[in-house]
UniProtKB/TrEMBL annotation:
The chain holds residues 318 to 584 of 584 of the full protein. One of its GO terms (molecular function) is phosphoprotein phosphatase activity. It is found in: Cell membrane. The lineage of its organism: Bacteria, Pseudomonadati, Planctomycetota, Planctomycetia, Planctomycetales. This is histidine kinase. One of its GO terms (cellular component) is plasma membrane. It comes from the Bacteria. It comes from Planctopirus limnophila (strain ATCC 43296 / DSM 3776 / IFAM 1008 / Mu 290). Keywords: ATP-binding, Cell membrane, Coiled coil, Kinase, Membrane, Nucleotide-binding, Phosphoprotein, Transferase, Transmembrane, Transmembrane helix, Two-component regulatory system.
Length: 267
């Protein structure tokens, strides 16, 4: 916070006022702490898979390579850890882009129906392999949202990845969308593990995970929802979650409707 006080000259007197500017350093300090915490998290997240890769490679070179079975298992582990690094770096690049002031999105009416259907189709394979039923409930006519099309796809892909990752076999994931006045509303609902109330506000923070081990196991980076929230805000919309442990979670995205009340595209 900045407080500025200006001493005005008396009527008829020349302007010789002084300006006193007081900066509230608590905000700056808070930002600096957040930045430090972020750098330390990134270092840790990068180091963990690298340490693992080195250890497997070293064990292989020290003789484990002789046994074909062990060799295969260790190489698979190395591949998994490399994949994790890849995902983490891709998420970090996405975040850095969102943070940079130069990133100006071309906001325009985007065919949400097409992207939602495409993302659902692309996730059907994983859903089947996990024995999860993935369905959509949607209006007959097309829905448009004000967004950037790649960014909108990132939002939907991330929410679907999570819904499938945190739902056990036999569960259900439902994607619903509809127009709601000047907004378009998208719900991604699952019958999964749920999120305890005290964690619900924090899952949108960078690297925040309810259960670190579980997130790692499903290949999570802890960055997905922070990217999703950032995108929703850049598009002038919002995201919220309601959830109950053991019964499931529902993520609701609200974005500006791309059509006016006559169904015509804006802009
Ligand atoms: P991650 O890569 O760990 O999934 P996210 O930022 O996407 O990171 O999500 C943060 C955390 O929020 C997850 O680690 C998980 O604990 C929780 N979470 C996200 N989506 C769901 C969901 N559909 N059901 C249960 N927990 C979820």
């Amino acid at each position: 916070r900045t407080l500025a006080m200006v001493a005005s000259p008396l009527p008829g007197e020349p302007a010789t006022g002084a300006v006193l500017v007081l900066h509230d350093v608590t905000d700056l300090r808070r930002l600096e702490n957040l930045r430090r915490e972020f750098v330390s998290n990134v270092s840790h997240e990068l180091k963990t898979p690298l340490t693992s890769i080195s250890a497997y490679a070293e064990t292989l070179l020290n003789g484990a390579m002789e046994d074909e079975e062990t060799c295969r298992t260790f190489l698979q582990r190395i591949e998994e850890q490399a994949e994790r690094l890849n995902k983490l770096i891709a998420d970090l690049i996405a975040l850095a882009r969102l943070d940079s002031i130069e990133q100006a999105f071309e906001l325009e009416p985007v065919n949400a129906t097409y992207i939602l259907q495409k993302s659902i189709d692309e996730h059907q394979g994983v859903a089947k392999s996990k024995q999860i039923e993935l369905i959509s409930v949607a209006p007959n006519d097309e829905m448009e949202v004000i967004a950037d099309s790649d960014g909108f796809q990132t939002i939907i892909d991330n929410l679907l990845d999570n819904a499938l990752n945190y739902t056990p076999a036999g569960g259900q994931v439902t994607v619903r969308w509809r127009r709601d006045g000047e907004w378009s509303r998208i719900d991604v609902e699952d019958t999964g593990v749920g999120i305890p109330r005290e964690h619900q506000a924090r899952i949108f923070e960078r690297f925040y995970r309810v259960d670190k081990a579980r997130s790692r196991e499903v290949g999570g980076t802890g960055l997905g929802l922070s990217i999703v929230k950032h995108l929703c805000q850049v598009f002038g919309g919002s995201i919220r979650v309601t959830s109950q442990v053991g019964s499931g979670s529902q993520f609701t995205v609200l974005l500006k409707n791309g059509q006016n009340s006559n169904g015509q595209t804006w802009m």
